[in-house]
Amino acid sequence: MAARSFSIRRRIVALALVLLLAAAVVLIVFIRDYAERSADRAFDRLLAASALTIAGAVQVEDGTVTVELPFASFGMFSGRDRVFYAVETPGGRAVTGYEDLSADLPELVSAGPVFADVLYRGELVRVASVGRLTSSGGDATWVTIHVAETQNEREALAGEILSNAIVPVVALTLLAIGLVWFGIGRMFAPLYQLEQELRGRAPDDLSPVDVPVPVEVRQLVGGLNAFMARLGSAMERVSGLVAEAAHEVRTPLASLRAQAEVAMDEQDPEALRRRVGRIHQGAVQASQLVSQLLMEATISHRLENQDSDTTVFGSVVEEVRQRLDPEQAGRLAGTLPEAAAAASIRGDRVALREMVRNVVDNALVYSDGPVELDGRMADGVMTFIVRDHGPGIADDEKSQVLERFKRGTASGSKAGSGLGLSIVKRVAEAHRGALRLLDRAGGGLVVEIDLPTVGRTPRMEQLRKALGSFSAVVICLVLALAQPADAASTRYPAPDGETGAVLTIVGVTDTPLFAQIISAFQAQRPDITVVYEETDSLPLYERFLAGDMAPKPDLLISSASDLMIKLANDGHAMAYDSPWLSGLPEWAHWRNEVFGFTFEPAVIIYNPDLISADEVPRTHLTLTEMLETQTERFRGKIATYDIALSGVGYLLAAQDQLISSNFWRLAAAFGRVNARFSGSSPAILNGVADGSLALGYNVLGSYAFGRKAGGANIEIVVPDDYVLVLTRAMLIPRDAPYPELGKAFVDFALSPAGQAVAAGPTALGSVMNGADGQWTSEAIAAMGRGVIQPIGLGPSLMVSLDQQRRKRFLDSWGEIVSPKP
Fold it and tell me: Which of 22, 651, 716, 783 is the most exposed place for a label (fewest CB within 10 A)?
């Protein structure tokens, strides 16, 4: 009983229906989750904004925390939910707001914000908590601000999003089901037309199907046409073979019949024996002819199927040798050279074997002496050579004997079918080779068969190397022309000698220091040449915006993280999901565009010959008091950044002003002592080390640690009240010529190997936890007793870059730090 058939149309409709309904359910579940998350994100941002607004109003006066609640603190709320807030000092003492709100909430020692759902006054509320670091004396403290809101409004928003999304999902699902039913009918129409075309054909019509069909069915029609073409070819081959076989076999069979009829009437035993011998000879010839015809048909079939594999030619020759009887095998002299025997030929092994067998058989049959086998390799072509000592073939017959059923006159009475050399020629040409028939010196025939081998040829290899060398020369010339003559850059060639990949980095790190990072990077990527240009943070920002960097950089590195955030926010950074991003602290990266890789505190350095260890200031307040009380002693002996010229200097000053209520008092003290202002940490370090300066403020700890380790006459103070920590930020420009090289360097800098360099001899500090080395973030944090305050990478850094705010800040700074009489 025939198996029951199923309709493909019904199957597709049923499957589509199940998938559409399942997709609708999954989509609704997803929309519900998305609606809840979207509502949470929207209201969480309002909560955080409210808490940050209150935090901005927190002040410390005479050690007392005060806050004047801004009118805008709760202006962003809708008014339909209940709002609660609380401000508390370290230790949990309430400053203002709802004192019982923070009973079950932790105090913050970071900026936050941190969100939590708590039960307050019998109702579930969402709380946003932020921290505000303040300093007015010898210590820095964290003030915690909590803002809470009931969740009725966010639940209503989530429900509204879900209800508005369900209606179109249901409508689209029903519409999709209808379109699937209609579309399937249209989809099967070409198949019905194809069926009618094939049913209307005559049995012997194997011409290609010429029916317009869709792209998806075109491969089926192409396969059908290819099959009919092969079938037609096979039918033609069979028809030709039958016709030729009928023609060639008719003569020996007629001869056998005549000889048999004569033998039946022969009375003389000796004559009868001779008749039987001739009958036997004719039968052998007929058998050989039939065998050759069948073998030719087999070879034609295998070659037409185009099945190919890689075959070692020496094994094919050895297989033919083993199939010979011992007497014939003993006549074979010589062996293939090792290179020819090991040559790999792509093709049909059976066809190759029959090719060799026919050549060897012909040589053994038509000659009485030894048959010599030889071979050679040249330019990726293996030549198989067979030499015999027979009568040879006349020059005017050499082309004829390559045709089917053609034999040379020198073959004489030797039995043969005339198919051997035609098979050899066909197999050689099918393998993209050639057959040559040559005369042997001293008499005989030489058969040479050329077959291409698999793999690179020596000539191709030479061409590849020549092209590679030419490309390297061209790249070097292009780079040389593109590099300005006066560019302050250093080139670090690829250790393995390759010149193809060139990574261009523009950064603010001292070149000798950064060279250690480059060396470690090239140890992992010896194929990359690195070009490093050193500049200052503000010129880096301005030159990049002006397009004044040639060649264009693949990576920017700056300690002025606010300027890097500004570049990324303005669309100049390329996004990259580094595999090490998950281990990077949240504050040390922004989105997947700006990446920090160092941990560098802002420290105070001093000359121990000019300031004793007992009197050195260890907080910002004691530094201010020392300058106020010993003005003449330190006049002209104090240095810090020129924040108008230095991007990192401006960043540190803006953060100081945000945290410390004594910032402007310290700035005024700088003015009293006629402080010197510099654009870089190394210049300040040099002055303190040689005694022309007594103290440097807000110097990058990475430079200070490295200089002290090198024997410089300086001492370092990590402040005991609060410590600003910045991280050198990396950014891949959106128009980088080779962004993949920039990504490779980012991955290295964040990897354990790169962090080991930062925590090791460079003293830049490792930002990743668990790094190996002396200058890890944990070790640096333990050097002082103050609150570690990282300068987090994020849009909040751009506040200080506002043109009017920056101008006011610089104007106030310039007025206050101006030399006082």
Answer: 22
Q: Give yes or no for a contact between 605 and 684, defined as CB atoms under 8 angstroms apart.
A: yes
Rounded distance, CA 583 to CA 588, Å?
10
> HEC profile for 457-479?
CHHHHHHHHHHHHHHHHHHHHHH
Domain ranges across the chain: 11-159, 307-455
Token couple for 650: 């401006």
Strand, helix or coil for residue 383? strand
Task: State the DSSP string of 663-705.
Answer: HHHHHHHHHHTT-EEESSHHHHHHHHHHTS-SEEEEEEHHHHH
Beta bridge mates, 147: 85, 128
Secondary-structure percent of the chain, ordered helix, strand, coil, rounded to 5: 50, 20, 30
Contact 501, 554 (CB under 8 A): no
545-556 pLDDT, tens digit per residue, is 999 898 899 999
Least confident of 212-216, 666-670, 746-750: 212-216
Q: Say how far apart CA 262 and CA 675 lie, in whole Å.
A: 136
Eight-state DSSP code of residue 441: T
**Which residues, including other chains, have CB under 8 Å from residue 313's CB and lie 6 or more apart?**
336, 340, 341, 343, 344, 345, 352, 375, 382, 384, 451
Q: Which long-range contacts (CB under 8 A, 24 or more apart) does 11-19 make?
A: 12/180, 12/184, 13/180, 13/181, 13/184, 16/177, 16/180, 17/177, 17/180
> Is residue 145 helix, strand or coil?
strand
Beta-bridge partners for 639: 676, 696
Alpha carbon distances (Å) from 337 to 35, 178, 272, 313, 343: 77, 72, 53, 11, 10
CATH number, domain 11-159: 3.30.450
**φ, ψ dihedrals at 785, nearest 5°:** -100, 0
Q: Show Cβ contacts of residue 739 under 8 Å, excluding neighbours closer than 6 positions.
A: 554, 574, 576, 732
CATH H superfamily, domain 307-455? Histidine kinase-like ATPase, C-terminal domain (3.30.565.10)
Residues 6+ apart with CB under 8 A from 658: none
Task: Please list, residue by residue across 692-705, b when 16 or more beta carbons sit within 10 angstroms of its beta carbon and e when fewer do.
Answer: ebbbbbbbbbbbbb
Identify the weakest region by mean pLDDT among 64-73, 522-531, 728-737: 64-73
In this structure, are strands 638-641 and 695-700 parallel, antiparallel, or unpaired? parallel
Q: Is the pTM of this model over 0.90?
A: no
E strands in 57-159: 58-61, 64-67, 83-88, 94-97, 114-120, 123-135, 140-150
